[in-house]
Write a structure and sequence with these properties.
The chain has a domain of 80 residues: OB fold (Dihydrolipoamide Acetyltransferase, E2P) (Beta Barrel). The protein has one helix and eight strands. The strands form two sheets. It has a five-stranded antiparallel beta sheet with strand order 6-5-4-7-8, covered by helices on one side. A three-stranded antiparallel beta sheet has the order 2-1-3. Strand 7 and strand 8 form a beta hairpin. The protein starts with a helix and ends with a strand. The chain binds zinc ion (ZN). The site of zinc ion has 8 residues, from loops.
Length: 132
């Protein structure tokens, strides 16, 4: 399936590059052109900011009914991770037994294969999280 938005945003997804508002210091990911807190004051003050990749598990769900893409990994864990910069990202937790996972656990982002685009053979990559 062609997904122009996905591919357009892909470089920032790969590298966890968001934008930091120099007016209030808030980091936004995915990147935003305007800070929702500062609005007009943030114009021209949104600078690229690479996330450290480190964060803590904020909440998680163990998925027992995988999507076709994840058929080899069952069950798998989807978590919301609060990054050091304060933004929350959703991603899969890898290299961790579900029983070992807990809220507040320290994790780091790692680049992994996400899946394949149907029969096109295009492999998508993106971040997942693992314990650190
Ligand atoms: Zn701001």
């Amino acid at each position: 399936m062609a997904n122009p938005r996905y591919w357009r945003e892909n470089p920032s997804r790969y590298n966890l590059i968001g934008k930091r508002c120099e007016n209030c210091g808030t980091v936004h990911f995915p990147p935003r052109e305007i800070c929702p807190k500062c609005r007009r004051k943030s114009i021209g003050k949104m600078k690229s900011h690479k996330l450290s990749g480190r964060g803590k598990v904020y909440s998680f769900t163990i998925v027992h009914e995988p999507m076709p893409d994840f058929s080899l990994m069952k069950p798998y864990i989807m978590a919301m991770v609060e990054m050091e910069e304060g933004v929350r990202l959703t991603g899969q937790i890898v290299d961790c037994e579900p029983a070992r996972l807990s809220i507040g656990m320290e994790v780091e982002a790692t680049l992994r294969k996400l899946g394949q685009e149907g029969s096109s053979g295009i492999i998508r990559y993106g971040y997942k999280f693992r314990p650190r």
